[in-house]
């Protein structure tokens, strides 16, 4: 009798559970939930059903000796299996993407330490110079304003180089995660550090560099508490290469948007 | 020099044999720490030439992962059990129920072997780290060397206290019991010290504070005081209590499943109850500690917080919610089974409240599981109208999470109160009024928690975090603090309608206890993975990059397989520790059974029930002396 009533109970609760699960899935579909959530909603309904069934379940037969140990092992394998399956069904991020990003960061660092970024730039400049000389020689043999063009070209190259530095600086802004504490172009944190959109008009490149290397030397107006707590880390002088700092400084110096109020920097010592 | 001559070779052996165990520990530690000291001396020379070494096949990271996890879990056990034991000892001392003192002693006995196993894994971990990550270890040694010395001293103090506490148990009874309890306090104090010092090294990796100026002690102290140090300390301390309680519960559960005699079943049923009670007791404040930790992570580095909660690790928190949900369900279910099987006849009067509680728990779990940002493909996000779902997106924010966490804690607490009151009829004249007040307070508290949660959506985050969330916690705390003594007072004069019967629980109660322990271990492993992955490709966040081939974070499914493996290995180790520690008991089994047979009479003092009448503290002491 007890078994019959339990079977009835299980059937009743399972039916209610499945109906609830299906309703959840349909609602999730209608409200455009991703598929993984629809599956999760169903599993969630089944978990609830299982606990409801367990509430009224009659005692199971007691196992003894090896059988009891075996049952325990099976129970653990079941739990582990469910856990691993659950974690594997969930969307997985691709570790190779992260590995690729790391490779990109490290490659630049390795290149910088092995050959030296400066050496590389000098080599490139020398190469360009040689080529320019060769072209001007060639053009001179035909006559005309070849010299002027070469000078203009050199000027353009120098402009591009400075543009590169600003772009590199922007990359440093992202890599060093400055946006966590400083708001710029309307996004980023603003509680720990000042907004930066107009910093180029308020500080010279030398002062900016000093602030990055020795944060305590400068304080932003209205940021007394943060200054006192030393919110700006002093790790960058150890963490960044000189070239990276110069690039970041160049980027910051280029920020001259007067429409955004940037707190005034105050020299502390 | 002269004294050295007296030490003949033959005497050395004798000396070693006579050498107190503590000195053996000192020698062991010295040998263990020698490489660290050597490394510290030449940190910037040889160690720097090799940044990483690998282990073929398994890989250096995986090997360190397994060993570190085992060490951490064993350490959690070694730190959690003394808290458990000490609390039991105090309860036994206050209630004069010998079985609590016996239980405390039983678990303290485990500590000696567990302590050695933990130290062994600590040693292996240290050697592996020095060998496989020399550059990182050289940096950390340079930064923290003074704290290594403090750690050694704490280790010595802990070892000495443990031996005095364990070997002096029978001697320090009667008038000397207070001193023994003081030793227990010291044991826990040093244990906390042993936990918090290495915590500073680990938290430094996530939230480093690097100070270039000052001497070695100042720099080490500044580095220790990093932003996540204390949140992790508190979180781990509470988690260790939970781990200790549930491991004891699981041990009792397994013994209950394997028990052949009625006496054994009664004893392990009772032990399972105590373990579950302490586990649940610790579990109640745990979400708040976790909340504080995450708050500090966000404060320190918003990006790290986003990586954890909204970035590539966001799904991890769905898994965490599921584990916590199952744990809450398991703990409550065990209480409900207790009402049904230990207090027969009382289940009918609690059937409806139990159903209601289960529904509330499931609904809360559903909200807890709802992520803030739904990880979706571009097409899916466009269909949904963004990464936040228009309907369920509101459940993804912290305001909703805090609310349901508080409600789940309230429900669990009420399950305990229900269990406590089952089988008793209040006779005090003021009982009706008191019960009405309690019901009213409970309703007001639940409404207030929900109102604050909903209101939290309409106020700035700073007000929600600093005031509303704190108020919710205080409300739940107030209910616990007022209901516990009030119920105790009510039941003091209550008439027992149904005697509590031990050993009648169905076998799924044993599985339930095992399930709770497995969930806690998996949770601890998962959170270890989360903390480590939140640093992304940094050994020390923002200071030292991980340039090894294992710098990336492993995917969740792969990590889950590792966590399951670690849990299994840990369970085997704990089983081995239990087996070794109880080897000598077999001869005394019959004697012990005789003592246990009388023990589970009434409701345990921890449940607030009437203390057993047949046995008092002194008789327990006699038993111990036998």
Please describe what this structure looks like.
The complex is a heterodimer of chains A (269) and B (626). Helix content of chain A is 69%, strand content 2%. Chain A is mostly helical. Chain A folds into 3 domains: 2-89; 97-144; 175-267. A two-stranded antiparallel sheet of chain A has the order 1-2. The longest helix of chain A has 30 residues, at 146-175. In chain A, 18% of the residues are buried. The model of chain A is unreliable at 145-161 (pLDDT under 50). Chain B is mainly α. In chain B, the strands form 2 sheets. Chain B has a two-stranded antiparallel ribbon. In chain B, strand 3 (538-540) and strand 4 (544-545) form a beta hairpin. The model of chain B is unreliable at 1-20, 33-47 and 601-626 (pLDDT under 50). The chains are: A mainly alpha (269), B mainly alpha (626). Chains A and B meet through helix 2, helix 3 and helix 4 of A and helix 10, helix 14, helix 15, helix 16 and helix 20 of B.
